[in-house]
Every structure is written in C-alpha cells, then in structure tokens.
Amino acid sequence: MLSTLRSRAVCAFVLIAVVPYVRADAQNAALFLAAERGDVEAIERLVRGGADVNVTGDLRYGDRSYLVSAVGAAALGWHADASRALLKHGAAPPRYVVRNHNLLPYSDRELDALRDWEVINSILRTPEVAAITRPIVERDARGTYRTHDGREYAVDFDDRGLQLTAPGGPALRFQLVAGKAFMQILPTTAAPSGNPRERTAPELSMFTRFVEPLPLADRNALVEQFRDRGGIWLDFTVGEGRVLGLEIREGGPARLGGTPVLFRKVGIRPEASSLLEREVAPGTGRNRSTSGGARPFLDSVTRHQSSGATESF
Fold first, then answer.
1. Which CATH superfamily groups domain 21-125?
2. Cβ count within 10 A of residue 299
C-alpha cells in the first residue's frame, strides 16, 4: 500500500511539473501559426498569456522546410501589422530598417515611423529570412519579366550566377548580395553608368550597409565599383513562397540609385495579400515608375550592352 501511494505521488508531481511546459509549447505553437496567418488579435491574446514572441517554427515552400522565427514568418506572408506587433512585444529586431529608401539602425522610434512595406522589407533583409528568400529566388526567378507597357527582361542562372537579358542584347551579370538582392558586376574598364557623379562619404557609408552581408573582399570590390562606375541594383519581390517581380535601379540601391523600374513576372497567379498586390502593381507602393522614368534607364542599359562593357568579366 505504501509503495502504491508513493508511486501515485510521484506521478502527480511529474504531471504538475509537465503541464505548464505542455501549455507553454501549445501557446508558442499557436503564436507561430497566428504570425504565419497575420492574425494580430490572436498574437496579442497569446502574448498576454505568456507566449514567447521569439518562438520558431517550420515553413514549407515547395519541397523544402525552413526553420524561421514568428516575425520572419509574418514578414514572408507580407503581414505588416502582425510583424509590427511582434516587434513591439520584443521579437528580435532587424539590425537596420528600410525607411524612406535608406537603411537606418533599428529603434522603437524608427519602427513607429515605418510604412507597411518598409516593415516587411526590413525583416526580409535579416540573415534568417535571407537564407529562405535566396533558395526561393534560385528556384523560381527564371523567366520573363515585363513592365506594364511591354518592356521585357529575361532572368536566368548559369555557373557564373544570375544574368539579366533584354531582347536582342547580351547578358548583364549580377552578384548575389543577400537573399533576394543583387548588384551588377562591371569590368574595371567599363565606363561609368548613367550620369556619373562624385559619391559623398555618407553615400559610400550607406552603400556599405547594403552590401554588409558580403565577405570583406567582395564588399570592398562593390563599394569601389559603386564609387567609380555605378551599376544596376536588382531586388526581387518575394512573397507567398514565390517570386512575383523584380525592381531595378541604375547606379545603386534605394536612394543611392536612379528611378526604380518595376518588372512583373509573366504568367504568375494573383497575390493573396493585398499589401503584396500593391507592391507588385505598376506605379504603386514606393513611388516607382514603369513608364516615363523607365525610358532613360533602359536606354542607358542599351548603351552599355551595345558598347560591350558588360560582356567581359
């Protein structure tokens, strides 16, 4: 009898000790699912109940599964409000935020000032999410991209990396910077692209932030190219586990470059996210241009192609 009572006491103690952990795991799993769905009300409720805002979970895209934080899952689904809520409750923030087409150190004050697409793109730049967007780009980016008025580029990959080709022109070569962002590689003998001007120290510092993920030698080479010759910055639009479009700027990323030109991937199905739909729609989201501002840019690309400056690497 005494042995039986002891066994029951041990079982009761173990049960009491285990139940809180089971409950916490269930809350954390529910929080991750809420982040993936963009359910802000559920996130707020679960955080009040003690769920861990830095919980990680699995996302499956295609035939691959990726481990990612809740805030990363929210951003990959283009759920800006959910991403913002998680950051406000203490989720690990990005090192930099995208604000007014600049990269600025993260702070709560900067977060409050961000527009929805800036919140998303700030998180998409983080190393954990870039490790997911990179294979999505490598798997899904091949194809034809077109502006609303019919200008086209084709994207392909070979043993030297990504190449961008206009109809009848040679391939423009690009180096991966991180995730979904690439910079054109120009030979040292190439003439400056676009309208060359002397770069300021703040501009060089800002560009260095954009290429910070690269190894030091590659980073220094691109900083030197940006300073002396420019080049095209290419950024794919990735959401819902696929590539939806690309944006290119002559001269460099964001405000360091020229007018952005948006190309939508041909043949893709409509987006489920309204924010993502606006992101890839012509002339919306980031004050992009796909008409009047595109012609000088594409003409400058054609001049580089015809001069042969992009054919020697």
1. Ankyrin repeat-containing domain (1.25.40.20)
2. 9
The domain ranges of the chain are: 21-125, 135-307
Instruction: Please determine, for residue 1, whether its predicted confidence score (pLDDT) is greater than 60.
Output: no
Place of tokens 């996210």: 273
Q: Is 213 left (phi over 0), alpha (psi -120 to 50) or beta?
A: alpha
- Residues in CB range of 242: below 8 A, 6 or more apart: 61, 136, 140, 268
Judging by beta carbons within 10 Å of its beta carbon (0-12, 13-18, 19+), is residue 148 exposed, middle or buried? middle
Measured from the Cβ of residue 252, the count of other Cβ atoms closer than 10 Å reads 27
> Rounded CA gap, 125 and 104, in Å?
13
SS3 content of the chain, % helix, strand, coil (to 5): 45, 20, 35
The mean pLDDT value for 255-261 works out to: 91
**pLDDT tens track for 63-116:** 889 999 999 999 999 999 999 999 999 999 999 999 998 999 999 999 999 999
Going by C-alpha positions, the residue among 209, 301, 226 that lies closest to residue 263 is: 301
